[in-house]
Structure formats: C-alpha cells, structure tokens
Specification:
Blueprint lengths: L1 E5 L3 H12 L5 E6 L2 H11 L3 E5 L7 H8 L7 E6 L3 H9 L3 E4 L4 H10 L5 H10 L7 E6 L2 E6 L3 E7 L2 E6 L2 E5 L3 H7 L4 E5 L2 E4 L3 E6 L5 E5 L5 E3 L5 H10 L1
Parallel strand pairs: 1-2, 1-3, 3-4, 4-5
Antiparallel strand pairs: 6-7, 8-9, 8-12, 9-10, 11-12, 13-14, 14-15
Keywords: DNA-binding, Phosphoprotein, Two-component regulatory system
GO molecular function: phosphorelay response regulator activity; transcription cis-regulatory region binding
GO biological process, one term: regulation of DNA-templated transcription
C-alpha cells in the first residue's frame, strides 16, 4: 500500500519514513512539507493512505484532508498530532485515524491496519468539531484534476443556478458550493452585493451608477463591473466609506 507522508518538520517526516520502511507491506510514495504540497502529491501519486500532520503553516492538515477527500478515490487519512485529549476525542468520534507524537512503531502499524476511508461528511464534521477556521484555498475540479485557488487571489464569487463562478487572478473556475455557505465562511473578507454575488473586500474599487440608473461595483485593477442590488447598496456604501 502506498503511503504519503505530510509534516512541515523534516525530522518528523524522516522518522515516519524510517518507520514505514521497516513495514514491508507499505511503500512511501512521497513526502510533503505543507497542505498545498499534500493535495498536489495526493493527485500525482494516488496514495492509499496519507499520514497528515495537523499544524502546518499556510494550509493546515485539516483543510488539506478536506480537499483530498474530494478526489475520485480518496485515500484514508491518519492525522499525526500533538493535540490535547479533547481534540483526540473528536477524531475518535468521527472515525478518523490519528497518531500522537512522538509516533511509535507499534502504534503506527496498528493505525495503518485500521485505516478506513473517511467520507466527505466525516471530514466536514471533523473540521467543525475542532473549530476549523475558514479555508486558505478553494478547491475546484478542472479537467478531472483538483485545482487549488488561494482565497487571497479571488476577486468574487458569482452564483448561476447550481454552479458558482470563482473569478481569480489567474482566470476563473466553477465550483458546486452554496453561495450562502461561502458568505458565512468568508464573512471577514467578502461582502455580498447581490443575491448572486460576493466580492472580495480587497477588490472594491468603487461604486457607480450605470446608464440605466442601477448601481454597480467597479473592481480594482480590472475595471470589471458587477451589479449591486438595491437592498445591498447601503451596506456597500458604508463599507466603501470605511476604506
């Protein structure tokens, strides 16, 4: 079985690799130092199991596991953690494997043998149970592969029937997430301007009336315009005054 090892600390990665090399039925297919690398390597190497550190800079292990769970055939995820007992109980509740640092050989072997494939509902429940903050990246499926878009590069989300267009610095992708849940998750950095649109606060360039007398937000840098519904005009005006 192929195992991907993810930890931001080189000594921890090396220890796990060394322990795995002593187990003949497991093969290390790659190592990653952060969550973004983990998602990309998981797609490239198609591991059966991922040993995932939780606390890593940038994208942490919980977010990386959520993205990995969207693969067509997601691997089992075993968290490697120094979390206190109440967090460990949360992992147990949602049937996601875990190993407590420092990892011992016999515990690693047992966890590998017991690893199951967490489904998306379990991953979502796990994220909520340990107070996960908003994601650092949005994950979209593009031509069969998962593409990660940094939230800081996103200009706006715009809903159209069952899909949401994510316009970002490098182009745009489609995702299937409710606009309402995106609004709740990214309330600190995005503002609703219409029932179908959320705009990144850093992308606001101003608000103007068009020839038809309707208000539009002008995006900074691109000059692109998005309609502001009447019910959101006051809130947008208040936000722009605060800049």
């Amino acid at each position: 079985m192929k195992v991907l090892v993810v930890d931001d600390e080189a000594p921890a990665r090396e220890r796990l690799v060394s322990l795995l090399e002593s187990l003949s039925q497991y093969e290390v297919c790659g190592t990653a130092a952060n969550g973004v690398q983990a998602v990309r390597l998981a797609q490239e190497t198609q591991p059966d199991i991922v040993l995932m550190d939780i606390r890593m800079p940038g994208m942490d292990g919980l977010e990386a596991a959520r993205h990995i769970s969207q693969m067509d055939t997601p691997p089992a995820v075993i968290f490697v953690t120094a979390y206190e007992e109440h967090a460990i109980e949360a992992f147990e509740t949602h049937a996601v494997g875990y190993l407590l640092k420092p990892v011992r050989g016999e515990r690693l072997k047992a966890a590998l043998e017991a690893a199951g494939r967490p489904n998306k509902a379990q991953m979502g429940a796990l994220g909520g149970s340990v107070g996960q903050s908003s994601r650092s990246h949005i994950c979209a499926r593009v031509r069969g592969n998962l593409e990660l878009i940094p939230v800081e590069d996103i200009h706006f989300f715009q809903a159209d029937q069952k899909y949401v267009t994510v316009r970002h610095t490098g182009g745009e992708v489609l995702i299937e997430e409710p606009l309402k849940s995106l609004e709740e998750e990214f309330a600190d950095s995005f503002l609703r301007i219409h029932r179908n649109a959320l705009v990144a606060k850093h992308s606001f360039g101003g608000m103007e009336k068009n020839a038809q007398g309707c208000f539009e937000v002008v995006l900074k840098g691109t000059g692109e315009r998005l309609e502001v519904s009447r019910r959101h005009v006051a809130e947008v005006r208040k936000f722009l005054k605060s800049l």
